[in-house]
UniProtKB/TrEMBL annotation:
<keyword id="KW-0505">Motor protein</keyword>
<comment type="function">
    <text>Motor protein that may participate in process critical to neuronal development and function such as cell migration, neurite outgrowth and vesicular transport.</text>
</comment>
<dbReference type="Pfam" id="PF00612">
    <property type="entry name" value="IQ"/>
</dbReference>
<dbReference type="GO" id="GO:0003774">
    <property type="term" value="F:cytoskeletal motor activity"/>
</dbReference>
<dbReference type="InterPro" id="IPR027417">
    <property type="entry name" value="P-loop_NTPase"/>
</dbReference>
<dbReference type="GO" id="GO:0003779">
    <property type="term" value="F:actin binding"/>
</dbReference>
<keyword id="KW-0067">ATP-binding</keyword>
<feature type="region of interest" description="Actin-binding">
    <location>
        <begin position="575"/>
        <end position="597"/>
    </location>
</feature>
<dbReference type="InterPro" id="IPR010926">
    <property type="entry name" value="Myosin_TH1"/>
</dbReference>
<keyword id="KW-0112">Calmodulin-binding</keyword>
<keyword id="KW-0677">Repeat</keyword>
<dbReference type="GO" id="GO:0005524">
    <property type="term" value="F:ATP binding"/>
</dbReference>
<keyword id="KW-0597">Phosphoprotein</keyword>
<dbReference type="InterPro" id="IPR036072">
    <property type="entry name" value="MYSc_Myo1"/>
</dbReference>
<dbReference type="GO" id="GO:0005938">
    <property type="term" value="C:cell cortex"/>
</dbReference>
<dbReference type="InterPro" id="IPR036961">
    <property type="entry name" value="Kinesin_motor_dom_sf"/>
</dbReference>
<keyword id="KW-0547">Nucleotide-binding</keyword>
C-alpha cells in the first residue's frame, strides 16, 4: 500500500505562506529565513512558488527527485519547482488546458535557472522516442545560444539575462513535445557600446576571443587580448567560475544541435567580430573652409578589416560616418557630421547591428524548433523576463522594464482573483469581493494613448523643432502634475517644491513595488533609437549573406520616408501582445528572490529580501489568497489524513468521503463559520483551524504509536515464549536420542571386545599348527637340495677335465703346423725383408707427420707467420712447400670474403704503403687506422646542409684541415672536400666555399719525412686556380688525404699522374713569392705539438718533436 504524504509532514517553518499565522511582513521574512537556513529554498503561496537562490548546488534536482514528484498532487510533497512543473504539465496533457509559467524576480534571483529546471523536468517526464528526443534536445540547447548572445555579467549576477524571453512549447495530444516558438523582448543593446563599472559586455565577445581557434581568429582578424577592443570592459573581463573557452565550445555544439549550418555560424561570428572592430574606429575633427567642423576617421586599419568582414566598400562606409543625407519629399540635403555625431552614428550602428543579429538568431532558432502545422497543439509558455529594477540612477531601460512588471503584476492579480472566483463558483461557495490595490492607474499613467508618458515621449520625438529631454520633462510636468502617482520638482504641485530628494531633471513614479526616481536624460535619444539612412544603405550594399535580411530598410528601391516606430511604441505593442497571449492560458507563477548581494551561500539579508517581497507583491498575494478561505483540500485526502481523530471514521470509513468529513468535523466540534463544504473540497477559513487539526492529529498519532508499540511488545513476548516452549521440546527429544545412542554404543563396544578375544585364541591355535607343518616341509627340501648339489659338482669336475685334454691336443697341433710352414718359406723371406721393413717404416713416419701437422695447423690469418717445426731432415722440402701452399690457400680464402668497399679500402692502404712506407715517419701510425673518407658526415649533418647542396658531385673525403698563413705561420680551420674532379676548401663556421681547385690544376703534393701532418698542394702555373698561389695545409689524416688525391688523379681521364714529393725542405708559391718550408726536429713543446714559425720573408720553419 502506498504511504500518503502531505505538505504538512515534517514541515520546517510553514511550507505554504497562506497558512502563516500571524501574518505580517516580519513573520513572512522570518519564515523564509528559517526555511532558507535549512536548505528549503522553495515555499508556496497557494499555487505560487517562491524560489530563493541558494548560490550553490543542492541535491534536490536529481533524476530520483524527478520521479518522486512525477504524477503527484501539488500539496502532496514538500514545496518544489518540480511540483509546479508537474501540475502544469498534467493539466496540459490530461485536461487540455494551455499553460503558462511566469518567472519573475530581479537580476541574480535565479530566473534563468528556474526556467531551465522547468524545461528539463518537462523533458524528463514526457514521452520518449527518436523524434521526440531530438525535439527535446533542440529546445534545451536553444538556451546556451541565447544566453551567450543575450546574457552578461552584472554587479548583481554573473549570468544576467539582458533580454526578456517567452517560449511557447507545443505538445501533441499524448503530451509529447512537437516544437516551440521563442519571443524576445527589449534586448539591452546599449550594453554593446558601454557597460557600467564592474560589469561586462555580452558573453559571446569574451567566449569568441577565449575559445576560438587561432585559425578562426585569424580569419576574423581578431586578437585574444581583450584590451585591444574599446567595447570590452577590462575591470571584469575575467569572472571566477566562468570558463569562457569551454562555454564557447558548448555554444558551437548547441548551434549545431539546433540546426545552424556551418556557413551560418561563420556569418554570425563575422558580425560579432565586426561589432568589436566597429568599436575601435575613432574620429578626429577637421575644419572646413566655411568654418564648420567635420569628422574624419583617425586610423582606417580597423575600418578596412571591418569592411572586409562585411564585404562592403571602405569608401561607402567612410562617407556614411562623415555625412548624413536627409530626404524630405523630393529634396535631399547632405550635411556633415561633427565628431560627436560621428561617434553617435558609430554606436548606433553597433547597437542596431548586434540587436538585429540577436533577433535573427531567435528567428533562425524558431525555424528549427517550430512544430509542423497540423491539428491544434497544446501549448505551455515559459516567461523568463527581467524583474522590477530600482537602481541609484534609473533611465529609459529601467522605466520600460518596470512598466512591463506593472503589467505582469496587473495580470497576476487579475488572474489570481479570477482563479479564486472560478474555484469558488465551481465548488458552490459564495464569492465575496476582495479589496486589493489595483495598479491599473499606474499602467494607465504610462501607456495611455493620449496622456500617457510613452505617448508624450513619442509625441516629443516626432515633434518638429528643438526636442530635448528638458522639453519632454516640461511636458510631463504640465500634463501629469495632478496624477497621484507622479512626482516632480517642476510640476504644478507645490508639495514637491521643497523636496530635495527629487532633483530638477528627474521625475518619480510611485509603482506598486515602491517609488522609483527616473533621470530624464537620454529618454528622447533612447526612444528614438535612430540609425541614419546612409548607414542602413551602406549595410544593405554589403556582400555579407545576412546584411540584406538585417537591414531591409536600406534597399534603395524601397525607400520609405516614414519615420520608423520608436522603441517605446514597439515595446508597448510587444507587451500588449504578450498580455493577450498570457490571458488565454492558465497561469503558474514562480517568484524568484535573491537572498544577498554578495552572490554567496548561507547569507540571508533581511532588508534586501524585504525589498523584493514588497515589489513582487507577495504580501498582497497572500492577503488575496486568505481573503476568503486560507486552505482547501479534496475530501478523500482530507479524510485519509484526519480520520484517526474520530472513532466513527477510524480505521476505515465505508461511505462517501464527503459524509466522512462531515462526521469528522461534527465530532471535533469545529465552529460552522470556520469551514464550508464544496462539491469536491472542504474549505477552511482560518489557518488556526488547520493547525488545530494538525495538533490533534499529532497527539492522536502519538497515542496510536503508543498503542502500536504496546500491541507489538505483547506480540513479541508471546512469540518469544512460544519459541522457548518449542525449543525446550526439541532439546528434550534430542537429549533422549543422544542418551540411547550412547548406551547402544557401550553395548556394541563390549560385544566387539569379547568377539576379538575369541577370534584371537582360535587364530593363534591355527598358526601353531601351520608353523609345524611348514618346518617339516622345509627340512625335506633342504636335504634334497644338498644331495642334488653334490651330484652337480661331481659332473662339473668331470667335464672340466675332459675339456683340458682336448685343448692340449689343439695347441700341440698348432705349434707343429707353424713349424712346418716356417721351414718351407724361410728361403723367400730372407731376400725381400729389408726393403719391406724400410717402406713400412717410411709409411708409418709420413702418416705420423701428417696427423701431427693436422693438430698443429696455424690460424687462418694471412699475417700469422707461425708454422710447426719440421720433425725430420729428410722432410725439409716437403715442409716448406706445404707451408707455401697453405699460405696461398689461406690468402685466397681471406680475399674471397672481401666486399667491394673493403677491397677498395685495402687497395688504398696498399697504395699508401707504396707511396709512404719507409719514406715518412707518420705512415706507421696510420696503418692500423681505417680510411673513413667522410669524417664530417656532411650529407647527414644539418649544419652542412647548405654546403652539401652546393656540391654537384659525390664527396669522396670530408675533413677539417688547417690552412697555414705565410704571414705568421698560424693555421685557420677550413673544411677540405675531395670529389672526383676537384678539391674544395670551405669556411668551417658558415660553410661558404673559399676555394675550388680542379684536379687537373694540381701538379704535385709535397710532404716531409717527419711525423707531422703538413702538406702543400702545388698548382699549375698560369691556371685560374693559381692566382693566389699554392696551399699549405695541415691535417691529422694526411696519409689518407694524399692517398685519395693520388688515386683520384690517376683515375681522372684528363689529368696526369700526381707527383708526391717527400722531402724535409720544399718551395711553396704564395702569390708572387716563393717561400721555403723547412722541417726540423726540436725539443717537445706545447704538449708535443708541431709548431710553425716565420723566420723571414722567404722561410717558414716547422718544428717537429723528436719523440713523435
Amino acid at each position: 500500500m502506498e504511504v500518503k504524504t502531505s505538505l504538512l509532514d515534517n514541515m520546517i517553518g510553514v511550507g505554504d505562506m497562506v497558512l502563516l499565522e500571524p501574518l505580517s511582513e516580519d513573520s513572512f521574512i522570518a519564515n523564509l529565513r528559517n526555511r532558507f537556513d535549512h536548505n528549503e529554498i522553495y515555499t508556496y503561496i497557494g499555487s505560487v512558488v517562491i524560489s530563493m537562490n541558494p548560490y550553490r548546488s543542492l541535491p534536490i534536482f536529481t533524476p530520483e527527485k524527478v520521479e518522486e514528484y512525477r504524477n503527484r498532487n501539488f500539496y502532496e510533497l514538500s514545496p518544489h519547482i518540480y511540483a509546479l512543473a508537474d501540475e502544469a504539465y498534467r493539466s496540459l496533457r490530461d485536461q487540455d488546458k494551455d499553460q503558462c509559467i511566469l518567472i519573475t524576480g530581479e537580476s541574480g534571483a535565479g530566473k534563468t535557472e528556474a526556467s531551465k529546471l522547468v524545461m528539463s523536468y518537462v523533458a524528463a517526464v514526457c514521452g520518449k522516442g527518436q523524434e521526440v528526443n531530438k525535439v527535446k534536445e533542440q529546445l534545451l540547447q536553444s538556451n546556451p545560444v541565447l544566453e551567450a548572445f543575450g546574457n552578461a555579467k552584472t554587479v548583481r549576477n554573473d549570468n544576467s539575462s539582458r533580454f526578456g524571453k517567452y517560449m511557447d512549447i507545443e505538445f501533441d495530444f499524448k503530451g509529447d513535445p512537437l516544437g516551440g516558438v521563442i519571443s524576445n523582448y527589449l534586448l539591452e543593446k546599449s550594453r554593446v557600446v558601454k557597460q557600467p563599472r564592474g560589469e561586462r559586455n555580452f558573453h559571446i565577445f569574451y567566449q569568441l576571443l577565449s575559445g576560438a581557434s587561432d585559425d578562426t581568429l585569424k580569419k576574423l582578424k581578431l586578437d585574444r587580448d581583450f584590451s585591444k577592443y574599446n567595447y570590452l570592459s577590462l575591470d571584469s573581463a575575467a569572472v571566477n567560475g566562468l570558463d569562457d573557452a569551454a562555454n564557447f565550445r558548448t555554444v558551437r555544439n548547441a548551434m549545431q544541435i539546433v540546426g545552424f549550418m556551418e556557413d551560418e555560424v561563420q556569418s554570425v561570428l563575422e558580425l560579432v567580430a565586426a561589432v568589436l572592430k566597429l568599436g575601435n574606429i575613432e574620429f578626429k575633427p577637421e575644419s572646413r573652409c566655411n568654418g564648420n567642423d567635420e569628422s574624419r576617421i583617425r586610423d582606417k586599419n580597423d575600418l578596412k578589416e571591418m569592411c572586409e568582414l562585411l564585404g562592403t566598400e571602405q569608401t561607402v562606409l567612410e562617407r556614411a560616418f562623415s555625412y548624413r543625407t536627409v530626404e524630405a519629399k523630393q529634396e535631399k540635403v547632405c550635411t556633415t557630421l561633427n565628431v560627436a555625431q560621428a561617434y553617435y552614428a558609430r554606436d548606433a550602428l553597433a547597437k542596431n547591428l548586434y540587436s538585429r543579429l540577436f533577433s535573427w538568431l531567435v528567428t533562425r532558432i524558431n525555424e528549427s524548433i517550430k512544430a509542423a502545422p497540423k491539428s491544434r497543439h497544446k501549448v505551455m509558455g515559459v516567461l523568463d523576463i527581467y524583474g522590477f529594477e530600482i537602481f541609484e540612477e534609473n533611465s529609459f531601460e529601467q522605466f520600460i522594464i518596470n512598466y512591463c512588471n506593472e503589467k505582469l503584476q496587473q495580470i497576476f492579480i487579475e488572474l489570481t482573483l479570477r482563479e479564486e472566483q472560478e474555484e469558488y463558483v465551481r465548488e458552490g461557495i459564495e464569492w465575496t469581493n476582495i479589496e486589493y490595490f489595483n495598479n491599473a492607474i499606474i499602467c494607465d499613467l504610462i501607456e495611455n494613448h493620449q496622456n500617457g508618458i510613452l505617448a508624450m515621449l513619442d509625441e516629443e520625438c516626432l515633434r518638429p523643432g528643438t526636442v530635448t529631454d528638458e522639453t519632454f520633462l516640461d511636458k510631463l510636468n504640465t500634463i501629469c502634475a495632478e496624477h497621484l502617482h507622479f512626482e516632480s520638482r517642476l510640476s504644478k504641485s507645490s508639495k514637491f517644491l521643497t523636496d530635495h530628494s527629487l532633483p530638477h531633471n528627474c521625475f518619480r513614479i510611485q509603482h506598486y513595488a515602491g517609488k522609483v526616481l527616473y533621470r530624464a536624460e537620454g529618454f528622447v535619444d533612447k526612444n528614438n533609437d535612430l540609425l541614419y539612412r546612409d548607414l542602413s544603405q551602406a549595410m544593405y550594399k554589403a556582400n555579407h549573406s545576412l546584411m540584406k535580411q538585417l537591414f531591409p530598410e536600406g534597399n534603395p528601391a524601397k525607400v520609405n520616408l516614414k519615420r520608423p516606430p520608436t522603441a517605446g511604441f514597439q515595446f508597448r505593442h510587444s507587451v500588449g501582445t504578450l498580455m493577450r497571449n498570457l490571458q488565454t492560458k492558465n497561469p503558474n507563477y514562480i517568484r524568484c528572490i535573491k537572498p544577498n548581494d554578495k552572490k554567496a551561500s548561507h547569507i540571508f539579508t533581511d532588508s534586501l529580501v524585504c525589498h523584493q517581497v514588497r515589489y513582487l507583491g507577495l504580501m498582497e498575494n497572500v492577503r488575496v489568497r486568505r481573503a476568503g478561505y486560507a486552505f482547501r483540500q479534496a475530501y478523500e485526502p482530507c479524510l485519509e489524513r484526519y480520520k484517526m481523530l474520530c472513532k466513527r471514521t477510524w480505521p476505515h470509513w465505508r461511505g462517501p468521503a464527503r459524509e466522512g468529513v462531515e462526521v469528522l468535523m461534527a465530532d471535533l466540534t469545529v465552529p460552522a463559520e470556520e469551514f464550508s463544504y464544496g462539491r469536491s473540497k472542504v474549505f477552511i477559513r482560518n489557518p488556526r483551524t488547520l493547525f488545530f487539526l494538525e495538533e490533534r492529529r499529532r497527539q492522536c498519532l502519538q497515542d496510536l504509536a503508543t498503542l502500536i508499540q504496546k500491541i507489538y511488545r505483547g506480540w513479541k513476548c508471546r512469540s518469544h515464549f512460544l519459541l522457548l516452549k518449542k525449543s525446550q521440546i526439541v532439546v528434550a527429544a534430542w537429549y533422549r536420542r543422544y542418551a540411547q545412542q550412547n548406551k547402544y554404543k557401550r553395548i556394541k563396544s563390549a560385544t566387539t571386545v569379547v568377539q576379538s578375544y575369541t577370534r584371537g585364541w582360535q587364530a593363534r591355535k591355527l598358526l601353531r599348527e601351520l608353523k609345524y607343518q611348514k618346518r617339516c616341509e622345509e627340512a625335506v627340501t633342504t636335504i634334497s637340495a644338498y644331495w642334488h648339489g653334490t651330484q652337480a659338482r661331481r659332473e662339473l669336475r668331470r667335464l672340466k677335465e675332459e675339456a683340458r685334454r682336448k685343448h692340449a691336443v689343439a695347441v700341440i697341433w698348432a705349434y707343429w703346423k707353424g713349424l712346418k710352414v716356417r721351414r718351407e718359406y724361410r728361403k723367400f723371406f730372407r731376400a725381400n725383408a729389408g726393403k719391406k721393413i724400410y717402406n713400412f717404416t717410411i709409411q708409418r713416419i709420413m702418416q705420423k707427420y701428417f696427423l701431427g701437422l693436422k693438430s698443429t695447423m696455424p690460424s687462418m690469418s694471412p699475417i700469422d707467420k707461425s708454422w710447426p717445426v719440421k720433425p725430420y731432415l729428410f722432410l725439409d722440402g716437403v715442409h716448406s712447400e706445404l707451408r707455401r701452399i697453405f699460405h696461398l690457400w689461406r690468402c685466397t680464402k681471406y680475399r674471397s670474403e672481401f666486399t667491394e668497399e673493403k677491397k677498395a679500402v685495402f687497395e688504398e692502404k696498399l697504395e699508401a704503403s707504396e707511396i709512404f712506407k719507409d719514406k715518412k715517419a707518420l705512415y706507421a701510425s696510420s696503418v692500423s687506422q681505417p680510411f673513413m673518407g667522410d669524417y664530417l658526415e656532411i650529407s647527414k649533418n644539418p649544419k652542412y646542409q647548405k654546403l652539401n647542396s652546393a656540391m654537384d658531385e659525390k664527396v669522396l673525403l670530408a675533413d677539417v684541415v688547417n690552412k697555414i698563413n705565410r704571414a705568421n705561420g698560424k693555421g685557420t680551420a677550413r673544411i677540405f672536400l675531395l670529389t672526383k674532379n676537384s678539391v674544395v676548401l670551405a669556411d668551417q663556421k658558415t660553410g661558404q666555399v673559399k676555394a675550388s681547385v680542379p684536379l687537373p690544376d694540381l701538379t704535385s703534393v709535397s710532404v716531409s719525412t717527419q711525423s707531422d701532418g703538413f702538406f702543400a698542394l702545388k698548382l699549375k702555373e698560369g691556371s685560374a686556380s693559381a692566382i693566389k698561389g699554392d696551399f699549405l695545409l695541415s691535417s691529422e689524416h694526411l696519409i689518407e688525404i694524399i692517398t685519395k688525391l693520388h688515386r683520384t688523379g690517376a683515375t681522372a681521364a684528363d689529368s696526369e699522374q700526381l707527383n708526391i714529393d717527400i722531402s724535409d725542405e720544399f718551395l711553396v708559391q704564395f702569390k708572387h713569392d716563393k717561400v721555403c718550408v723547412k722541417f726540423i726536429q726540436g725539443a717537445p713543446k706545447n704538449g708535443n705539438s708541431v709548431s710553425c714559425k716565420r723566420k723571414n720573408n722567404r722561410l717558414l720553419e716547422v718544428s717537429v718533436p723528436s719523440t713523435v
